[in-house]
Write a structure and sequence with these properties.
Blueprint: E1 2-3, H1 16-24, H2 37-74, E2 76-78, E3 91-97, E4 106-107, E5 110-111, H3 112-124, E6 132-137, H4 149-157, H5 168-175, E7 186-193, H6 205-212, E8 218-224, E9 231-235, E10 244-246, E11 251-261, E12 270-272, E13 294-304, E14 310-321, E15 325-332, E16 338-346, E17 357-365, E18 368-374, H7 378-381, H8 383-389, H9 392-396, E19 402-408, H10 409-417, E20 430-433, E21 436-442, E22 457-461, H11 468-479, E23 483-487, H12 495-499, H13 501-504, E24 509-521, E25 551-560, E26 564-569, E27 575-582, E28 585-590, H14 610-613, H15 615-630, E29 638-640, E30 645-648, E31 656-661, E32 671-674, E33 681-684, E34 691-697, E35 711-716, H16 729-736, E36 741-744, H17 747-759, E37 761-762, H18 764-785
Parallel strand pairs: 3-6, 3-7, 7-8, 8-36, 10-17, 12-15, 18-19, 18-22, 22-23, 23-28, 29-35
Antiparallel strand pairs: 1-2, 2-37, 4-5, 9-11, 11-15, 13-14, 13-16, 16-17, 20-21, 24-25, 26-27, 27-28, 30-33, 31-32, 31-34, 34-35
Helix pairs in contact: 1-2, 2-18, 3-4, 8-15
């Protein structure tokens, strides 16, 4: 048994006081002369025996009361399994704080993190001298014990919430080994959390119990600073089906509005916005009278202008019950070319503002020019490719992602042989005829214009033989950054030109012969294909009728050149589409032509039915090939805090770029990154703070104008960081397994639980109760025993 205050045991000498009083107050018998003395003497012995028993019982009761009083002040307790000798032994203390944005939730006019900090500051004062402290948050950082209590208090007061951070389980794996560097005998850990389930969800659960066995001497206390009841509205991360689109298109934004309450364990019901009943109608299932379980919420869309000032563009109001989820769709048109940034916001404020605003970025870009080259009749041979990339309907609506110009192979060769100045770049100009709005008319090039600089890529559709000088000039264009699509067909009958050294700088391999398959083969992609060209054609669950798109002829290739990658094969295993990188440009090769070879002469052999039987597959394939050649990928400009991502820099030629919030303030210091000038990509490390950001070329003077903004991106906090689904103490005990944990919600409970954890079960309360019972019994007995007869 352990005594918290053993000094009071010296007062056990006081038990002699009732003994002395008993002896002093003992009544002496008086001699009484009475005629019936013999009768009285016969009753003397039984009365003395009863009187003695009463005296002894009262004496014992008074001695016991003094002992109880001494024990109460001494505060005895039963040993715990974590008992360490010495009530004031120095302690190695870890204070672990969950600092996710969810801890910003305000309850009783104080955030959950502030409530944890107040308890933590009081707790620091309770530890013995020479103790060591480690104040740690779930945000990564430098960690270790410090002996300075004041510095620990300063670190505690500087804690802030963060959108980036690890789960509590992951953090425990990292910080528990700190105890191995401490020589102090007592080890205690205090975990401050709002008891949300998310910080405890980790793939490390299965190993955690075995891990904790190595630290069985560490006393763990979980401090619940969560609100007693949660009422909060949350916006989900916005989903943009398309983050890059051409001028004239409308931005489509999808999101969800979640209403949380204290009983929410998961989104209980999803109600599409357009199917939700009008709550003001008589048939509505939502009550019209005031009901605290139903509320009206308004979500607005704001777009940022050139100065970063929000402009409201759309809003929707919905009625929502606590625990429900409502889907919402927004459409915003009339956007300017370049990065368009904005945010969704719930009107009004609530207890957790950080999940009321969500950011997004979409980029409006002009149509991408692509040059299609084919032998005569060029318009006929390029018809299917042109309609796949720039459909007539989209051109009429000015929504086409690509704009295709067609020239004959002879014109193309004349341009290359004209030896135009390679460094003069004047984009080709187009004008629309009043009577034909879909067909651009080219203004003839002149000697001071590099015609090909106007196009992001060019495609050779079933070319005939080319001279070595032409192949070399095509190589120079690709090496400088152009994209080249090579689609071979029946016109490549003179394979000597394609097997020449100049052509092999671009070709994937030497041509050997035409492979004839009268029964037909078909394209055979695999789910393992990860190339961007095949992204939309290898989606799990997508059924593509490959067997209905037979290929009857294709070119057989010899040994592959270096740097060549196969993207798509035929069912026999022969390559169908191959790619290679040449300098800063890209080359795609297809061994069968992208058109119907019998379209203008039925006597010619049929090579494939790809444009006819598989028209929609053909459209997807051609668009993906064009996007890859031009570098215009659909990489989303919207990411989550703490996750690295990559931005495409196609069309720019800078080595370093600056990143800063938008709108930008005087306190914002741009962060500089170096770009991959070969792949035209910018790798951005994790961004912590949610918001809209922009990318511009690096400037030594740090002065930027509107025209310097070339890309934008948005960062949001993940939905899981703000959901407040609770975890129960019993679930936490399962996670910790055999390792005992104690819970507390306030400082008083912490003192009681810490005492119980250090010294075991304290007997203070039962001793006080027993003392009161004995005191009442002693008063009753003494009043009856010493009653004076009247």
């Amino acid at each position: 048994m352990l005594f918290v205050n053993p000094f009071f045991l010296i007062f056990t000498a006081l038990i002699g006081v009732p003994i002395l009083l008993h002896l002093w107050m003992r009544q002496k018998p008086q001699k009484i002369i009475f005629p019936a003395i013999l009768f009285l003497k016969s009753q003397e012995k039984p009365q003395k025996r009863t009187l003695l028993l009463r005296h002894l019982f009262l004496l014992f009761l008074r001695v016991f009361l003094i002992l109880l009083l001494i024990l109460i002040f001494s505060r005895p307790s039963l040993h715990s399994s974590r008992y360490t000798p010495g009530g004031d032994s120095p302690t190695a203390v870890i204070l672990l704080f969950d600092t996710s944005v969810r801890m910003e939730y305000r309850y009783e006019n104080i955030s959950r993190l502030q409530a944890a900090q107040e308890i933590g500051k009081k707790l620091l004062l309770q530890f013995p001298r020479n103790s060591e402290f480690a104040v740690i948050s779930t945000k990564p950082g430098i960690r270790g014990f410090i002996p300075d209590r004041g510095e620990a208090a300063r670190q505690l007061s500087r804690l802030q919430t963060s959108s980036t951070g690890k789960s509590l389980l992951e953090t425990l794996y990292e910080i528990l080994p700190l105890y191995e560097n401490s020589t102090l005998p007592r080890r205690e850990m205090f975990i401050f959390t709002d008891m949300s389930e998310m910080p405890w969800n980790s793939g490390l659960k299965t190993e955690f119990q075995a891990f904790m066995k190595k630290y069985s001497d560490v006393a763990v206390y979980i401090i619940d600073v969560g609100a007693d009841f949660i009422i909060n509205d949350t916006l989900d991360i916005p989903i943009l089906p398309k983050t890059r689109f051409v001028e004239g298109g409308a931005l489509h934004i999808k999101t969800r509005l979640l209403s949380q309450n204290g009983t929410l364990t998961a989104p209980s019901k999803i109600i599409p916005e357009e199917k939700k009943e009008d709550p003001t109608s008589e048939s509505s299932s939502l009550p019209l009278q005031r009901n605290e379980n139903v509320s009206q919420k308004t979500v607005s869309v704001y777009m940022l202008d050139a100065e970063g000032v929000p402009q409201k563009r759309d809003e929707h109001s919905v009625f929502i019950r606590h625990g429900e989820t409502v889907e919402m769709d927004f459409f915003v048109g009339d956007l300017e070319t370049g990065p368009n940034q904005g945010f969704l916001e719930i009107t009004g404020t609530d207890a957790l503002p950080s999940d009321n605003r969500r950011f997004f970025t979409a980029e409006v870009m002009p149509s991408i020019p692509i040059l299609l080259v084919a032998p005569e009749p060029a318009e006929t041979l390029t018809f299917f490719v042109k309609q796949a990339l720039a459909p007539t309907f989209h051109l009429q609506q000015e929504h086409s992602r690509f704009v295709c110009d067609v020239i004959s192979q002879k014109e193309f060769m004349d341009i290359l042989n004209a030896d135009l100045p390679p460094h003069v770049s004047t984009p080709i100009k187009t004008e629309k005829k009043p009577d034909s709005p879909t067909k651009p008319t080219k203004i003839p090039f002149s000697s001071d214009t590099n015609f090909l600089d106007a196009y992001a890529a060019f495609m050779l559709i079933d070319p005939t033989e080319l001279s070595g000088s032409v192949w070399q000039k095509i190589f120079d264009q690709v090496n400088a950054g152009k994209g080249l699509g090579l689609f071979l067909g029946p016109n490549a009958h003179n394979i000597t030109s394609f097997n020449a050294a100049e052509a092999q700088q671009l070709m994937p391999a030497k041509l050997e012969f035409q492979s004839r398959r009268p029964e037909g083969v078909w394209l055979a992609p695999t789910r393992a294909t990860q190339h961007p060209v095949m992204r939309d054609l290898t989606v799990p669950g997508l059924s593509i009728p490959w067997a209905q798109i037979p290929i009857f002829r294709y070119w057989q290739l010899g040994k592959w050149n270096s740097g060549v990658q196969n993207i798509l094969s035929f069912t026999g295993g022969d390559p169908a589409i191959m790619e290679r990188t040449v300098g800063t440009g890209k080359v795609l090769f297809m061994s069968t032509p992208p058109y119907n070879t019998q379209i203008h002469d039925h006597k010619k052999p049929l090579w494939n039915l790809l444009p006819q039987n598989g028209s929609w597959v053909f459209v997807i394939l051609m668009n993906r090939m064009a996007q890859w050649l031009t570098g215009e990928t659909d990489n989303s400009a919207n990411t989550l805090a703490g996750i690295p991502f990559t931005i495409s820099l196609t069309g720019t030629r800078h080595d370093r770029y600056s990143i800063f919030p938008f709108p930008r303030t005087a306190q914002d210091t741009p962060i500089t990154f170096s770009a991959d000038t070969r792949e035209h990509l910018l790798d951005i490390s994790a961004v912590e703070k949610p918001g809209n950001y922009r990318v511009s070329p690096f400037s030594e003077t740090n002065t930027l104008t509107e025209n310097d903004f070339i890309r934008g991106f948005s960062v949001n906090t993940s939905l899981e960081q703000t959901l407040q689904t609770k975890i129960s103490p019993s679930q936490l005990r399962i996670i910790f397994g055999e390792h005992p944990i104690r819970f507390a919600k306030n400082f008083t409970q912490i003192e009681r639980e810490v005492t119980a954890g250090r010294i075991g079960f304290e007997l203070y309360t039962p001793l006080v109760i027993l003392f009161l019972i004995c005191m009442i019994l002693e008063i009753w007995l003494s009043n009856n025993f010493y009653r004076t007869a009247k």
